[in-house]
Design goal:
Aspartate Aminotransferase, domain 2, globular, Arc Repressor Mutant, subunit A, nine-stranded mixed β-sheet, homodimer
């Protein structure tokens, strides 16, 4: 690929991944030592180490101190990876609102097994410390904070968010941060800042249904880019698209595409940024899953790689700490003033006390320990769910291998109809997200997304297995 | 006026108002008894009573039990009313964002005298009971509520809002209510539901600057309607406009226009609705000041007069209870589903705990006593401020006579420049809102708005008098 220089360590990492996929390396097996790898493949020790570290970051290998690297036991053993999607032939007018609303209604119904909505369970998030900060602020300073806050957001929260930006490898000042009502408002503000109705936006296929819904309501069209289940967006396809089509912006996940779990390498991210810069197309990135990495290092979002020159960064605390608080943020660089104007015009400012509580929670230093805990929980939950899927779904099922976040993407042989599965599953009290809501052109009807954002137990495991049996029946019919 | 039938009681009320204005009836004086009025003017007892009741609702008269009606002592004694604005010759492209942002920055700076922003002071609002409800919900049920709420809003809050709708004379079910991030988001959702960029919206002149800013950011144009300082919109001018121009919607205050304080009579509101219905133009009404009436009865918003057939109702708790909570709502009748779609696409849902706290506060029945208290405070504050203005501003100053809310609108002889006054006042630590931010075509440069949404004391009184002296100097120069 011209646009995406492939490094030696990446080629080696791909080779080892395929050995694991075809069973040459079993889950739990020790891989050759760094020195042995270096000698076998004629690469430097540092390249060999980089190969293993990158596989560790992807969750493929696990490092054991004083011992070496092992194939992760949580690797799905038998199911193949989903296919890489095709690029769309033309921009799609999005029409998804009915499907999204219907899914949300089912997802929020606590009577159903909660595989539908990609939101962590409150029990699992253990937000007690944050809630107590809110209670304290309300009790002690309710009167002082009963005012319109600044449209940009409360200073203490912006300051803490800016401090944390160092962890993603990007320098932000509090003035660069605009607090929003979750990542949804951040994406809406970003889109209205750089586009006008009728414009076309390049998006991943599959992509987050909420993004598609926002595009629809803003009168924007979507051009769908092919996505590899491990490496993410096909940069050549993007370059070809920009060569031939007028694209107003590109809107992508920073890390762990929802629903596919793919993550671009840093080199690929840089190559993608170079392509966008060549055509002067701004990038809007959604990093809500970035803090939920299973690998050693927090993967860098795009903004850390281009210094924010052409990137608008959107994120929130909804996937990792506080979905009920509705606090997100946006870092828009030179476009910050225009974003604040829109925040002011569209919702004036955010609720003050939840921002104060979040600011104090972050300032206490409690967030990092919290993140370590939820990362471990999500990784375990995904491993449990993957195993339950492998023993209950048809063997032809393909399954994603996310290295962060808490969703799995399943692909069944066409013409499997996940809508038919959905109707039957709902009757049995099980909710999940059918694949077609993840595409502007309503592709992926043979796919589905399952969320593992809740504690794992026998009841939940039974739900997954029941869904697998239903999938068997539909596939056989 | 064809479109606005003038009733006998309204003619009589106008006559009595003009007698007060020209000094024939002094503040505190007893007006003729209902029987005497009936005999003098050859009207029925019920018409005479209706005359006095309508004057009481406007704050012109005060009823004393067992005694009769008196000219309100808080009536400004000497200053004339502001002029009725002219209709604009054509639709204006709005360009106000810079001015609004600059004003907001000054208004939120606590170092300045707080006459700039139309938001009540937290001390005055005494939201303790609400804050404790929030603290309790966070402490006891934080985990349960740490979820995405329904896009439409929490059920307990929608139910309480629907119950309160009876007080405005309109029947709503909880399903008719969509909770928003303050009235700003409600207006934005209403506008995006019934318009597209490039459309023209009919607005009052002067009108709320935030509405103009939202129009600008949505790419909407504004057509400005003449507004009488007492009776509100000139319905004939609206009818003429709709006859000749394509107007996508009309966006008005329900009661107590901000900044002018005008309020249309129920008969005029019905006539306006009839004109809009004739041309099939939807009405978007902003009722944030409606609960802050000084008269006996809560004035009816438009939605109560057309049953919501053609009206989208927007309001919030920001002016009366909780500016810091950012909770508003919208009732959009047949357009409710489309409004929810937009809420979902633009901000997903609101923060859960503040909604729960507000729902519990309303359910406790505490809001009515709270409203009685803040109404009295605002009325007293406005009376204090009006007196301070009358003794310190140039005698040519004209001043509004709001019968609700907490702002005063001052008009000085042209070419008085309220921007020059603003610059000098800011240097002296006094903030207010210059007139031109209340107009899409940046008229009213000789006007200013003062907010009295804070406790009255000597320091505040000094600020008003200081401003008056500055106005004297600028007028003389």
């Amino acid at each position: 690929m011209d646009a995406s220089p492939s490094y030696r360590y990446e080629q080696l990492a791909d080779l080892i991944t395929s050995m694991i996929d075809n069973g040459a390396l079993a889950p739990g097996a020790r891989v050759p030592s760094v020195r042995a790898l270096s000698e076998q493949h004629g690469v430097s020790i540092s390249t060999a180490l980089q190969t293993y570290r990158s596989l560790e970051d992807r969750g493929v290998l696990v490092a054991r101190p004083q011992s070496g690297f092992y194939v992760a036991s949580t690797q799905p053993g038998t199911f193949a990876l989903p296919s890489t999607s095709r690029r769309s032939a033309k921009a799609s007018t999005v029409s998804i609102s009915g499907a999204v609303a219907a899914l949300l209604e089912h997802s929020s119904n606590r009577a159903f097994m909660p595989f539908g909505c990609a939101v962590p369970d409150g029990e699992l998030l253990e937000s007690k410390r944050l809630d107590l900060a809110l209670a304290r602020a309300a009790r002690r300073h309710g009167t002082r904070y009963n005012v319109y806050g600044p449209p940009q957001g409360e200073a203490i929260l912006r300051s803490e968010i800016a401090k944390r930006a160092m962890r993603i490898g990007h320098v932000l000042s509090p003035d660069d941060v605009v607090v929003t009502s979750g990542c949804t408002e951040a994406l809406m503000l970003a889109l209205t800042t750089v586009t006008k109705p009728g414009d076309t936006i390049a998006v991943e296929a599959p992509t987050y249904m909420g993004l598609l819904h926002t595009l629809e309501m803003l009168g924007l069209k979507a051009f769908e880019l092919p996505v590899d289940p491990i490496r993410g967006i096909d940069i050549d396809a993007l370059a070809q698209l920009l060569e031939t089509e007028q694209v107003a912006a590109c809107a992508l996940s920073s890390c762990f595409n929802n629903p596919l779990g793919s993550m671009m390498t840093e080199a690929d991210k840089r190559a993608l940024l170079a392509v966008l810069a060549r055509y002067d197309v701004p990038l809007i990135e959604d990093d809500v899953y970035g803090d939920l990495h299973f690998g050693r290092e927090r993967p860098k979002p795009f903004i850390a790689l281009d210094g924010g020159a052409n990137t608008i960064y959107c994120s929130s605390f909804s996937k990792s700490l506080a979905p009920g608080y509705r606090v997100g943020w946006i870092a828009a660089g030179a476009r910050t003033r225009r974003v604040i104007e829109r925040k002011l015009a569209f919702s004036l400012c955010g609720a003050v006390l939840p921002q104060i509580a979040l600011g104090e929670f972050l300032a206490s230093g409690a967030y990092d320990a919290h993140l370590r805990n939820v990362r471990r929980l999500f990784q375990e939950n995904l491993a449990h769910m993957a195993r339950a899927i492998e023993v209950s779904f048809p063997p032809e099922t393909k399954m994603s291998r996310p290295t962060g976040g808490f969703v799995l993407w399943l692909e069944l042989p066409k013409p499997f109809d996940s809508r038919a599965l959905f109707d039957q599953a709902i009757e049995q009290g099980i909710c999940f997200a059918p694949g077609d809501v993840f595409s502007a052109s309503r592709r992926f009807r043979n796919c589905l997304r399952l969320s593992a954002g809740h504690g794992w137990n026998d009841h939940i495991a039974d739900g997954v297995r029941h869904l697998g049996r239903l999938a068997h029946k539909i596939l056989a019919s």
